[in-house]
């Protein structure tokens, strides 16, 4: 079997997880393989030689990016030159589109096959980026079917591979076991409050979610709450917001999957966590608030009728979305209350979506990559 050299670049922890799964599947299908590029600890554990630490690419927010722009551009330029010299059989950019799409374009011009794994949100906004993708990318691997449909219409070679979270999360989660693990009582209704993982999100939504919890408690006196904290900083932020409130809230360090498995319903910020709530089949209400000017601009730019992943995946309004001024404690509590012991329409829809996404994503992606470079499996 001919030896392969595969280059991969991931820019953050979620990409490191996807990259490691893909590398494992590639090795299983084609054992004679060498991996080069940039990745985190999980990808390195699978055998990647990382040219520099992945953390150098993980920058959030515009201001932070501007502060590091010279370094990022210099690293990208050097990486392109190194990879052109190394001549890998294929280059795989994992997410991080602002960094990886440019690399793909330059490598493809140099005659190297290129794959992009995880579609940027081009279907929702900045649709012109699809032209750059079509020019720079031999194959787009998408996690969701509606993305693949968009690329097909735009003439980009694409394969929908499914989502590795859908493979990892069981089709039916054990609520009683999760409650026992978290030391939460079996009988009383439990609502998970998930106002986001970033400081700004918790700043905008934390008090709103706790105000909603107080309204909900007035409507349903037995209800309890569980709140996963994404980091020690978020825990401090939430403890400050809880001070002076008489609410039965259990704060958890991380453990968002256990919180979802344990609860009856979820009040949640729009984002990736909504996919996790969907896969755990927990009825949800999605809320979001942005700075007024940002919201005004996005409203004009975004082409999609929905903002939350469950609705994008269902291609209909499956879960309530309360945004900006519509997201009041009263409205959220009234919308959430009937879902605590209802929500069957949502959960039936969630189950169908889970089965659609559960395709053994890493193996599908590996197979697509090997087919692209014409390697017999």
UniProtKB/TrEMBL annotation:
Its EC number is 2.4.1.182. The keyword Glycosyltransferase applies. It catalyses: a lipid X + a UDP-2-N,3-O-bis[(3R)-3-hydroxyacyl]-alpha-D-glucosamine = a lipid A disaccharide + UDP + H(+). Pathway: Bacterial outer membrane biogenesis; LPS lipid A biosynthesis. Signal peptide: none annotated. One of its GO terms (cellular component) is membrane. The keyword Transferase applies. It comes from the Bacteria. SUPFAM superfamilies: UDP-Glycosyltransferase/glycogen phosphorylase. It holds the Pfam family LpxB. Transmembrane segments: none annotated. Keywords: Glycosyltransferase, Lipid A biosynthesis, Lipid biosynthesis, Lipid metabolism, Transferase. Gene3D superfamilies: Glycogen Phosphorylase B. One of its GO terms (molecular function) is phospholipid binding. GO terms for biological process: lipid A biosynthetic process. NCBIfam families: lpxB (TIGR00215). Belongs to the LpxB family. Condensation of UDP-2,3-diacylglucosamine and 2,3-diacylglucosamine-1-phosphate to form lipid A disaccharide, a precursor of lipid A, a phosphorylated glycolipid that anchors the lipopolysaccharide to the outer membrane of the cell. This is Lipid-A-disaccharide synthase. It comes from Pseudomonas frederiksbergensis. The lineage of its organism: Bacteria, Pseudomonadati, Pseudomonadota, Gammaproteobacteria, Pseudomonadales. The gene is lpxB.
């Amino acid at each position: 079997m001919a030896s392969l050299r595969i280059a991969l670049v991931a820019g953050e922890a979620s990409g490191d997880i996807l990259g490691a799964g893909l590398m494992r599947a590639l090795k299983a299908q084609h054992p004679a393989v060498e991996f080069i590029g940039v990745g985190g600890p999980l990808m390195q554990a699978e055998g990647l030689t990382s040219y520099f630490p992945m953390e150098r690419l993980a920058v959030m927010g515009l201001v932070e990016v501007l502060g590091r722009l010279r370094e990022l551009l210099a690293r990208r330029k050097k990486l392109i030159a190194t990879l052109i010299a190394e001549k890998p059989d294929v280059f795989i950019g994992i997410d991080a589109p602002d960094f990886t799409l440019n690399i793909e374009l330059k490598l493809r011009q140099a005659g190297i096959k290129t794959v992009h794994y995880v579609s940027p949100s081009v279907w929702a906004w900045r649709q012109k980026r699809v032209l750059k993708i079509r020019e720079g990318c031999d194959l787009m691997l998408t996690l969701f079917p509606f993305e693949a449909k968009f690329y097909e219409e735009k003439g980009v070679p694409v394969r929908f591979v499914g989502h590795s979270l859908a493979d990892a999360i069981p089709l039916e989660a054990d609520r009683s076991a999760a409650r026992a693990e978290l030391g939460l009582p079996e009988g009383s209704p439990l609502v998970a409050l998930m106002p986001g993982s970033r400081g700004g999100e918790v700043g905008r939504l934390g008090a709103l979610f706790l105000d909603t919890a107080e309204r909900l408690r007035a409507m349903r006196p037995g209800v309890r709450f569980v709140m996963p904290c994404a980091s020690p900083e978020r825990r401090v932020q939430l403890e400050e917001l809880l001070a002076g409130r008489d609410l039965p809230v259990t704060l958890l360090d991380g453990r968002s999957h256990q919180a979802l498995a344990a609860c009856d319903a979820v009040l949640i910020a729009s984002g990736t966590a909504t996919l996790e709530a969907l896969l755990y089949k927990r009825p949800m209400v999605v809320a979001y608030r942005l700075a007024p000017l940002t919201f005004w601009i996005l409203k004009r730019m975004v082409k999609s009728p929905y903002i939350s992943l469950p609705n994008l995946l269902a291609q209909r309004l499956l879960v309530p979305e309360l945004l900006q001024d519509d997201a009041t404690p009263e409205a959220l509590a009234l919308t959430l209350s009937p879902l605590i012991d209802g929500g069957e329409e949502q959960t039936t829809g969630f189950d169908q979506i889970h089965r659609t996404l559960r395709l053994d994503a890493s193996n599908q992606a590996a197979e697509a990559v090997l087919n692209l470079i014409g390697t017999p499996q």
